[in-house]
Amino acid sequence: MKKKYILSLILIFFLKLGISQNIALYNTTAVGDSIIKYKTEMKSVNLNSYTQDLVNFKTRYATASNHRQVAVYLLNKFKSFGYQNAYLDSFTYSSTWQYNVIATLQGTTTPDSMYILGAHYDSNSSSNATVTAPGADDNASGAAGVLEVARAYKAGGFKPKSTIVFVEFAAEDVGLLGSKHYVNDAKTSGLKIAMMVNFDMISNETSSSNWTMKIEKYTGSEKVTALTKYITNNYSSLTPLEDLEHITCSDSYSFNQGGYKAVQLMENTYSPYYHSANDIVSNTNSNYATEICRVACGMLTYRNTYPLNTSMNDIADNISFSVYPNPANSYFNFSINHEKAEETILHIYDINGSIVLSKNLGIISTLDQKVDLSNISKGFYFVKISTKNKSLIQKLIVK
Ligand SMILES: [Zn+2]
């Protein structure tokens, strides 16, 4: 009697939660697979190599004579990863043209909604265009991180729900100018920026373990801060530390001031080589920087992955299936209609996303079948029918 009563309470609890809550729980597992896929794709050896390339320019000061060459290097990197749409967005400063470098991964369902990953690529030492300013940590590390996230997504064939924009900002060290220019344009054009993640100084770490990352957080961006902590705790080796000290010092501040949600990810121990000739690659830690990049990548993946790695394009209008009775007891029937015969697989998932039943139905166009549920405990489930390119999901309640 007591057991039955408790079971009823659990069922009522789930019914009260509603199906959307269950979908949220369920999606977490599928999204987790996607986060792990792209975090694994990112390599510290690549970050190290891009950082060295940027340091090799000797200076990247905003008004240095080579500043267009630096922008073109970044542009060509994006293109080499497959971003043929990459371009230079120019503005003027102190009688010079400055160039933000922008690459876009188009969203598939809500392309108007944008997620931005940015970092500045200019460097500074003595505010003098002719003085050596390698800027390995500040901020070749962040600029390299943006490149590596962009490369990982192309390499893995990521198809985000919303558009992801990678921006390498110019002229940050002379007053956040690249990001101010970007935000002014965004506001004029009414761009819908859902979140901006900024890297600035992400590679100073001398210990080999127990790494901490600073989350420079903004009022009004509490959900972004919470997401940063969630991804850091669950998908990186870093310990997150919320901080306010540097919030006005980098490009994320321009987005915050423009009314957009933002966060800056940053090394916990401030580089002792800041704005000096010793800010060189051998004083940076690319493994640590890669972990910080994995947090940003995880955040973008979390917000842009479809349940079970399906996309709206995959949800077919030429398959239908029904599940009955539902709620079911010891069995349910389902019927499928395909436009053409295709190999079809049936999966039943529990609310944690674990498969509880899996069956290859063969190459079929229509099928009516009874599925035995006697080994499946009471609760909420999802029935998924998949073919090579398409899938459909329906909820199933087992009483
Ligand atoms: Zn910086």
Any idea of the CATH topology of the largest domain? Aminopeptidase
Coarse shape? elongated
For the record, the CATH class of the largest domain is: Alpha Beta
Report the order of strands and helices: HHHEEEHEHEEHEHEHEEEEE
Average pLDDT score: 88
Poorly predicted spans: 9-28, 308-316
Second rung of CATH, namely the architecture of the largest domain: 3-Layer(aba) Sandwich
Bound ligands, named by name, code or SMILES: zinc ion
In oligomeric terms, what are we looking at? Answer: single chain
Helix content: 25-40%
N- to C-terminal distance: 16 Å
Characterization of this structure:
- The chain has an eight-stranded mixed β-sheet, with helices on both faces. Strands 9, 10, 11, 12 and 13 form a five-stranded antiparallel β-sheet that branches.
- It has 399 residues and is α/β, with parallel strands linked by helices.
- It contains eight helices and 13 strands.
- The two termini are 16 Å apart.
- About 7% of the residues have low confidence.
- A hairpin with a 4-residue loop joins strand 10 and strand 11.
- The chain has two domains: 271 residues, 3-Layer(aba) Sandwich (Aminopeptidase), CATH 3.40.630.10; 85 residues, Sandwich (Immunoglobulin-like).
- It is elongated and about 75 Å long.
Short descriptors:
eight-stranded mixed beta sheet, alpha/beta, Immunoglobulin-like, Aminopeptidase, 2 domains, elongated
Task: Chart the SSEs and their pairings.
Layout: H1 2-41, H2 44-55, H3 67-81, E1 87-93, E2 96-105, E3 110-120, H4 136-156, E4 162-169, H5 177-189, E5 192-199, E6 212-217, H6 222-235, E7 239-243, H7 252-257, E8 262-267, H8 286-304, E9 319-324, E10 331-350, E11 355-372, E12 379-386, E13 391-398
Parallel strand pairs: 3-4, 3-5, 5-8, 6-7
Antiparallel strand pairs: 1-2, 2-4, 6-8, 9-10, 10-11, 10-12, 12-13
The structure holds zinc ion.
